[in-house]
Amino acid sequence: MPHVTILGSIDLRQIIIRRPEMFLRDREGLKRVSEYYTNTDCSKLLLEALVIEPEKKQQFFFQVNKKANGAVVRLDPISDAEKTTGVKRLLGQVAFAIKSLFPGSRYGKTNIADFIPDHERPSRARGKKLRAAA
After folding, report:
1. Which residues of 27-56 are buried (b: 16+ CB within 10 A; e: fewer)?
2. Which of 1, 17, 20, 27 has its CA 20 to 30 A from that of 95?
3. Where are the beta strands (DSSP E) in the chain?
């Protein structure tokens, strides 16, 4: 299941109040978030999404779940959206928009790093491993 963890002090109420840009239009189609729904204690946010790609139109929800050290953005499992490139790109845009609202926040675990606009992957040093001689 595609997901992005955002670490830091995340207030879901601010997402609703500030309504960051969650819209993409490119030659592959249109992707947008239109409505925001929350539960009574504001620990879960549902974002109504629309992705129109060639020969495919999908309407579904993203979930933003508040955690002790941040939030997790993922596809709502009930809406059963096909995990197309467009869906992953919009999920990356949603994560980017939420992270942009909260200075000092950073990305945690994700399985869609290539679809997040400002995600930097840690570089891995490639070289020979040194062995300790006894």
Report:
1. eebebbbeebeeeeeeeebbbbbbbbbeee
2. 27
3. 3-7, 23-26, 29-38, 44-53, 56-67, 70-75, 106-110
Choose among 76, 72, 20, 77: nearest CA to 48: 76
Domain boundaries, the chain: 3-115
How far CA 119 is from CA of 4, 8, 108, in Å, comes to 11, 16, 10
Per residue in 60-84, pLDDT (tens digit) is 999 999 999 999 999 998 988 999 9
Q: How far apart, in whole angstroms, are the C-alpha atoms of residue 105 and residue 111?
A: 18
Half-sphere exposure of 98 (CA within 13 A, CB side): 34
- Percent of the chain past pLDDT 90, that is, above it, reads 75
- Answer yes or no: are the C-beta atoms of 76 and 82 closer than 8 Å: no
> How far is Cα 5 from Cα 13, in angstroms, rounded to an integer?
18
